[in-house]
Each structure stands twice: as C-alpha cells, then as structure tokens.
UniProtKB/TrEMBL annotation:
<protein>
    <recommendedName>
        <fullName>Glucose-methanol-choline oxidoreductase N-terminal domain-containing protein</fullName>
    </recommendedName>
</protein>
<dbReference type="InterPro" id="IPR051871">
    <property type="entry name" value="GMC_Oxidoreductase-Related"/>
</dbReference>
<feature type="domain" description="Glucose-methanol-choline oxidoreductase N-terminal">
    <location>
        <begin position="293"/>
        <end position="307"/>
    </location>
</feature>
<dbReference type="Pfam" id="PF00732">
    <property type="entry name" value="GMC_oxred_N"/>
</dbReference>
<feature type="signal peptide">
    <location>
        <begin position="1"/>
        <end position="27"/>
    </location>
</feature>
<keyword id="KW-0274">FAD</keyword>
<feature type="binding site">
    <location>
        <begin position="90"/>
        <end position="91"/>
    </location>
    <ligand>
        <name>FAD</name>
    </ligand>
</feature>
<dbReference type="InterPro" id="IPR012132">
    <property type="entry name" value="GMC_OxRdtase"/>
</dbReference>
<dbReference type="GO" id="GO:0050660">
    <property type="term" value="F:flavin adenine dinucleotide binding"/>
</dbReference>
<keyword id="KW-0285">Flavoprotein</keyword>
<dbReference type="InterPro" id="IPR036188">
    <property type="entry name" value="FAD/NAD-bd_sf"/>
</dbReference>
<dbReference type="InterPro" id="IPR000172">
    <property type="entry name" value="GMC_OxRdtase_N"/>
</dbReference>
<dbReference type="GO" id="GO:0016614">
    <property type="term" value="F:oxidoreductase activity, acting on CH-OH group of donors"/>
</dbReference>
<keyword id="KW-0732">Signal</keyword>
<feature type="binding site">
    <location>
        <position position="249"/>
    </location>
    <ligand>
        <name>FAD</name>
    </ligand>
</feature>
<feature type="binding site">
    <location>
        <position position="136"/>
    </location>
    <ligand>
        <name>FAD</name>
    </ligand>
</feature>
<comment type="similarity">
    <text>Belongs to the GMC oxidoreductase family.</text>
</comment>
Length: 489
C-alpha cells in the first residue's frame, strides 16, 4: 500500500510538472496573456494604450518610451512602471511560446534558426566573425548561454555608478530568474582541471566576480527551462505599463523648435507593416530611452538624425544633432575555442564553471550539443558545439556563400566527429575597437560593423596566453576519462 501511494504521489508530481510546461508546448499564449496582460501585439496599439494620453492631444502618450525590450529594457520598464506610465516597443515576439528559447536542449537550434521571425537574427561582422542579435522580448537572455555573474567592482567604479545602489539591485534579479546549476560531470572535470593549471582559489558557487575558479548562476532551472529578462516584467505595475511586441521602431521624433532638440516620440511599424506614432507626455522628465543593444542603439540614433555628418549625408538623413562619436569605439570580447572529442557522448551543458584569471582572460566550457542529427545540420554561430567558427576558413573569406558551403559539407561528416565539448577562452575588456556604419535606412537590416579583433598587440598576447591555458586544461588528468582513445581536433 505504501509503495502504491508513493508511486501515486510521484505520478501526481509528474502530471503537475507536465501541466506547468503545457502552455509552453502548445504556444504559450494563454500563459503569458494571463500573467502579463500588458503584452500586446503592435497592431493593437490604439486599443491597448488609450488610457494614457496627455492633456493636449488625443493620441496616446507616456512618461517613458523604451525602445527595445531586452536585457536592459525589461527590468527598466518594470521599475519605472511603479511610478510612471511606460511604453515598451520590442521588434520581436514573446519568448514564452518558443521551445527553442525555453529549453536548454534546444539552445543551438535557436541560434541556427535564421528565419525572419526567429528569436535570433544572424549577423556577421566585416571581420568575418559569425554572431547573432536577439530579436525577442527578453533580448540576449533568450539566446545566450545563460551564465550569470555580478559585475566586477572595478568596472562599476570605472563607469561611475553608485556601487551601493548596484549591489542592492542584484537580489531583485537573482530572486526572480537566477538559479544554482546542478553541475554536469563535464563541468566538474573542467573545474578540477582549472585548479590543476593554477586558476585558484576555488571560490565555490558564487555570484561575485572574483579571481579564481567558480561556479556561477544560470538562467536555466533544474528542469532545463530558461528564465529570461522578460519574466522580470511580472514585477511591473500592470496598470502603468504597455509592452508591444512585433513593434519595430524606425526613428525617434524630435522637437527642434528650442535651443536643443528634444525627443518627443517615435515612429514604429506593427507586424502588418502599418505605421504608428507614440508620444511623450508634456513632462520635462519624460524620455525616450534606447536600449536596442550595442548594435541597434547607434543604428537607431543615426537613422533618427544623430551621428557623424558624413554618415548622415551619405544616406540623405536630415541631421538633428551632429555627434561624431556615434558608431565609434565598437568593441567585442573575442572568443576562441578548442573542440575536445570524447570517447562517448557527454551530457549537454552550457557555461556553469568559469576561470577568472589575473591575465585578463576568462576560461569557460560547454559540452554535448553535437549528438543529434538536427544538431549536425546546424551552424551554431558564436558558440558552435561542433568545430567552431569555420576554423578552416580565414575570416575575410567567410562570405555567405562560403558559410552555406560549410554547412552543406558538415552534413557529410561522420556522426562520431561531433561527440565532445568545447574549452573557450575570452578576453576581458578588449583594447581593440572599431566602428559601425549604416548600409541603408532600413532598420530591419544589419549595419556594417568592424570590431578590429586583436588589432592591439596586448589583446593578441592575451589571446595566445588564453589558448595555451586552454590546452593545459585539456591535458589535465581530469579529462582522461572523456578523451582517452579520442583525438583532439
């Protein structure tokens, strides 16, 4: 009888868990519309926002308009809505109904899906490095590797933030979407290997960014389900917030009658291609806030008439404010990886353990994303779980045609070639910088970006040091069980 009751209890728990995930599997609309009633499609703009209006116009107006509902836009909207009316305009859809976003096992598929409505917009810099731009509510937290750590205290001081206020803000995020990972076997071996090669001390599980080896937080819960910045909107005041998805802002509108141009609203198009305008209230503190990412924000500024004179003239964009610094100083943390073939399949894991070295290099690892036929047919961009960034093709030769040829050839490789994991090294705070230029006036198209990876000799030297350390990690005795009788590529 006791055994029967125990089995019944387990069955009930499994049924509850299945029911909890059912909305995700069946589209998720009922789930998010119940929990986030303020999230609407852009085409519903007038009906959903008519409650907010200024005293001198019949058109909807807001204290704050946030362009980009990503990693920054969502928490910003949630906190501002406690005291102000807020409109968030996100060009992508919701993450809740997208199984490629929601589950760790589909991480690589999300990056490989380059269809026009996917959460991941393909992007290749002029340096030839494949990357992805988030195109979904929740931004980069929907397509990244899910690793969470607090900022380096030195960084906070350098940018001039209030360190006390920053530290008080972390728990608000951590309590809602961050989890302690269940350490995968591969990640455990990686942790021991880091300590073997001198990345010490071992700091255990911690959110703090400190030198040594640590296990950090993750956006994935114990069921392998991703929790994104979009869930932070649950803390918003629903009566003061409107979030429009599939709302692509085309430009910021300015009042130029005064001594200085002042943002007054935005023009955006909905999922049907129809244009709308949204305006700020007549409040001196009201603002249009651009949180479109490192690429989308300078692109939006220039399309709105703020940027270098030559850049605006090139595309006949009327100048609102000349600023030669827009689009300059573009930097990206270069990442290099070493694929480690294994003698057997290994469980899937993303970034859980990290080595924070004193030489300005991070060492990380992932495993197990190359074992299905679906995976082999994909290219996985910035965090490929197979053979890296088209490593046999020089960056300048990575044309769209070359990339397609690579994907086609990859299908012919033996299945065994994809078993294994990656050791990754990344440079912290690169000195090398580049620039962003507009290609056209279509906000849907990627601008041209050059990062000038390793242009500064110090960045190149750190890269060499990081690769050498990654090689030592692989040679550690703790990886022997995975790599014996397998060859390192």
């Amino acid at each position: 009888m006791a055994a029967f009751l125990g089995a019944l209890k387990k069955l009930s728990i499994c049924l509850i868990l299945w029911l909890n995930t059912l909305p995700f599997l069946q589209g998720g609309s009922d789930y998010y519309e119940f929990k986030y009633p303020f999230i609407k499609r852009a085409s519903s703009f007038w009906a959903s926002s008519s409650s907010f209006s200024s005293s001198n116009t019949d058109e909807a107006s807001y204290d704050y308009i946030i362009v980009g509902g990503g990693t920054a836009g969502c928490p910003l909207a949630a906190t501002l809505s406690q005291n102000f009316s807020v409109l968030v305009l996100e060009r992508g859809g919701v993450p809740f109904s997208n199984v490629n976003v929601s589950f760790l096992s589909n991480f690589h598929i999300a990056l490989a899906d380059t269809s026009p409505t996917s959460a991941s917009q393909p992007f290749v810099s002029t340096d030839g490095v494949i990357n992805a731009r988030a195109r979904v509510l929740g931004g980069g937290t929907c397509i990244n590797a899910g690793f969470y750590t607090r900022a380096n205290s030195g960084f906070i001081r350098r940018v001039g933030w209030d360190e006390r206020l920053v530290n008080e803000s972390y728990p608000w995020v951590e309590k809602q979407i961050i989890h302690q990972p269940k350490l995968a076997q591969w990640q455990g071996a990686f942790k021991d290997s880091l300590l073997d090669v001198g990345v010490s001390p071992y700091n255990g599980f911690t959110y703090d960014h400190i030198h040594g080896t640590k296990v950090g937080g993750t956006l994935f819960d114990r069921f392998g389900r991703r929790h994104t910045a979009a869930e932070l909107l649950a803390s918003a005041n629903p009566k003061m917030l409107t979030v429009l998805v599939y709302a692509t802002v085309q430009k910021v509108l300015f009042d130029q009658t005064g001594r200085r141009p002042m943002a007054m609203g935005v023009i955006f198009k909905d999922e049907n291609g129809n244009q709308h305008q949204a305006f700020l209230t007549n409040n001196r503190r009201s603002e249009v806030i651009l949180s479109c990412g490192a690429i989308g924000t300078p692109q939006m500024l220039m399309l709105s008439g703020i940027g270098p004179k030559a850049e605006l003239n090139k595309l006949n964009i009327s100048m609102v404010l000349r600023n030669e610094f827009v689009g300059k100083g573009m930097a990206d943390n270069p990442m290099n990886s070493v694929f480690v073939p294994t003698n057997r399949p290994v469980e899937q894991s993303l970034i859980q353990t990290v080595g924070i070295t004193k030489m300005g290099v991070y060492i990380e690892s992932s495993s197990g994303f190359g074992q299905s036929q679906d995976s082999i047919r994909c290219h996985h961009g910035i965090l490929s779980a197979e053979i890296g960034q088209l490593s046999t093709i020089p960056p300048k030769q990575r044309t769209p045609e070359a990339i397609q040829a690579f994907i086609k050839r990859k299908r012919d490789l033996p299945h065994e070639a994809f078993k294994g994991g990656f050791i990754l090294e990344k440079i912290a705070r690169p000195i090398s910088t580049g620039h962003l230029n507009l290609v056209n006036t279509n906000i849907d198209d990627n601008p041209s970006v050059t990062f000038n990876y390793f242009h500064h000799p110090h960045d190149l030297q750190r890269c060499v040091n990081g690769i050498r350390m990654a090689a030592k990690v692989i040679q550690s005795k703790h990886f022997t069980n995975f790599t014996s009788s397998a060859k390192t590529l």
